[in-house]
Write a structure and sequence with these properties.
alpha+beta, two-stranded antiparallel sheet, 7-stranded mixed sheet
């Protein structure tokens, strides 16, 4: 198939492909200090290209350049503790909450008055507004008297005002506002990218996974459902491959489950979650916490009644028997057969993207970063390793790679052709 390199992705799977990703892994869990130093340097070269990371570093350096700011923040923590221990603290806290509610009511009634033309409603809203305004004045009066009687609160207010002035003068407020905007935009882009990836890989399920499951069987009653939650908590499945029943209204037959992860390092999170979900779908009560699955529909927290998924105007009924094809593997005890993954190629790190984000944030905000020595670097390494779960992405790939038939169930997208002479199973997606 002739395609440009910018629009071509290769799908690889099989034991050789999984082995190659494992060989290229830089697993944080097993790094020594020198290996960690090298890994951290590589990460920094990438992180520094991220505008949000760079802005956090600027804020960190700005704070470190002004010890008077750090001293004032320490003072604020002390006076806050003294205020919380004062006799007036509890009532002042209650007053702040009541004033907040009054302000919201006044704002809401003011907006309603601007929209309302009915004379009777106008009169009632004005009376309510006047009552809340009077109540607000009473609360402010009581608050003022309590503050006057509380030296601790007056000192807290003084230090807060001084800190706000200093932050404004240093440009810290503006810098943090810029960071908030960058982080918000980054989150929106990440969300859109995730949705786009899920949409992009949907044809892969039909092209690669459905033939594995169906063989030469009849595909007329086959459907690939997306975002299946069934009215329970923790159960939104990316894709379920199902066969519709011959008689309408009967439960469907689930042939396969597909977990889509844009980042290779998140396979383990998806794997752990789907193991628990499958135990719930099959009624293996000892393998999940019912309280986490309890909803208005599943009041017991168990999958003890039929549930319906609606998609494209069709209704699909599910029962425990729908998941009868999923069985635990001898030896590992995990659900592997019929549980598929679609992901993108990348460097395995031994921790999830959430953990990597925490590491990136700590590096960008740690005021001791420039003075970091061997002992501090070792402390950081131990902290990073503590973020790893007992089962991470390399472990999942080893689990699937140990059986050739299971290794085909992990589909990895990469923007290049396999190496010449490679026996990896590879096809082109455009």
């Amino acid at each position: 198939m002739a395609t440009s390199s910018s629009s071509t992705l290769h799908v690889v799977r099989g034991t050789r492909a999984l082995r190659r990703w494992l060989e290229q892994a830089v697993d944080l869990r097993g790094l020594d200090l020198e290996g960690f130093r090298h890994w951290l340097g590589q990460q920094l070269s990438r992180w520094e290209l991220d505008p949000a990371f760079a802005q956090r570093v600027r804020i960190r350096d700005l704070r470190q350049a002004h010890p008077e700011l750090l001293a004032l923040e320490r003072t604020l923590r002390h006076v806050t503790a003294a205020d919380e221990a004062s006799p007036q603290a509890e009532r002042l806290f209650q007053l702040e909450q009541e004033l907040s509610r009054a302000d919201k009511a006044i704002a809401g009634l003011g907006a309603a008055l601007e929209r309302t033309t009915d004379a009777r409603k106008l009169s009632g809203s004005r009376q309510k507004l006047a009552a809340f305004q009077a109540r607000r004045r009473e609360l402010l009066s009581e608050q003022s008297l309590l503050i006057h009687a509380s030296p601790a609160r007056r000192e807290l207010l003084r230090v807060r005002a001084e800190l706000e002035q200093l932050r404004s003068r240093l440009g810290l407020e503006r810098a943090e506002a810029e960071l908030a905007g960058l982080s918000r935009d980054q989150g929106l882009r990440s969300g859109r990218a995730g949705q786009s990836f899920e949409q992009q890989v949907l044809p892969l399920t039909w092209r690669f996974i459905v033939p594995d499951l169906l063989g030469r069987g009849d595909a007329a009653r086959l459907r690939v459902l997306r975002g299946v939650g069934l009215g329970a908590a923790r159960t939104e499945i990316d894709q379920l491959i199902i066969r519709q029943p011959r008689h309408p209204g009967q439960p469907v037959e689930v042939l396969g489950m597909v977990e889509v992860k844009r980042n290779l390092n998140d396979l383990a999170h998806g794997f752990r979650h789907r193991q628990e979900n499958l135990a719930w779908f099959k009624g293996e009560a000892g393998h999940y916490d019912p309280s986490l699955y309890r909803t208005r529909y599943f009041r017991s927290g168990h999958f003890d009644r039929e549930a319906v998924h609606e998609e494209d105007g069709e209704r699909f009924v599910f029962s425990r028997d729908s998941f009868r094809h999923f069985r635990r593997e001898p030896g590992s005890g995990a659900f592997l057969r019929r549980l598929y993954f679609i992901t993108r190629g990348g460097t395995l790190s031994g921790v999830s993207t959430v953990a990597l984000a925490r590491i990136r944030h700590r590096v960008a905000t740690d005021g001791r970063w420039r003075q970091r020595g061997e002992a501090s670097l070792g402390e950081l390494l131990r902290w990073c390793q503590s973020l790893a779960e007992p089962l991470e992405a390399p472990d999942v790939l080893r689990l699937y790679g140990s059986l050739p038939a299971r290794a085909r169930q992990v589909l990895v997208l990469e923007p290049r052709s396999p190496r010449p002479g490679s026996q990896e199973e590879s096809q082109v997606l455009t």
